[in-house]
Amino acid sequence: MFTVNVMGQIYICHPEENLLEAARKSHIPLPVGCCNGGCGMCRIKVVKGTFTLGICSKAVLSDRDREANYTLACKTYPSSNMEVTLESI
Fold first, then answer.
1. Judging by DSSP bridges, how do beta strands 82-86 and 2-6 pair with one another?
2. Which long-range contacts (CB under 8 A, 24 or more apart) does 34-39 make?
3. Per-residue pLDDT tens digits of the chain, which is 89 residues long
4. Annotated domain spans of the chain
5. CB < 8 Å & 24+ apart, contacts of 4-13
6. How many CA atoms lie within 13 A of 41 on its CB side?
7. 65-86 b/e with 16+ CB inside 10 Å = b?
């Protein structure tokens, strides 16, 4: 399991669960929409750490966004401890 720091709020996330699921279990409020990688409401920016990104829409997370370390919490699975910030679209 890994720790995730969201702007000073720290919670535990297992590699098989996405950041959004783990945040909800820990009562950490993150913006949420479709929970399926299609709306972009849970967009975050990774400051530190590594992860695997599940399938999501390129309309809400372009290749350029991905290169700039933006991701969607509902489709992000940690492979290390992480630090993320909430980012508006």
1. parallel
2. 34/74, 35/74, 36/74, 37/61, 37/72, 37/74, 37/75
3. 999 999 999 999 999 999 999 999 999 999 999 999 999 999 999 999 999 999 999 999 999 999 999 999 999 999 999 999 997 55
4. 2-86
5. 4/49, 4/78, 4/81, 4/82, 4/83, 4/84, 5/81, 5/82, 5/83, 5/84, 6/30, 6/44, 6/84, 6/85, 6/86, 7/84, 7/85, 7/86, 13/78, 13/82
6. 11
7. beeebbbbbbbbbbeeebbbee
Domain 2-86 is classified in which CATH homologous superfamily?
A: Beta-grasp domain (3.10.20.30)
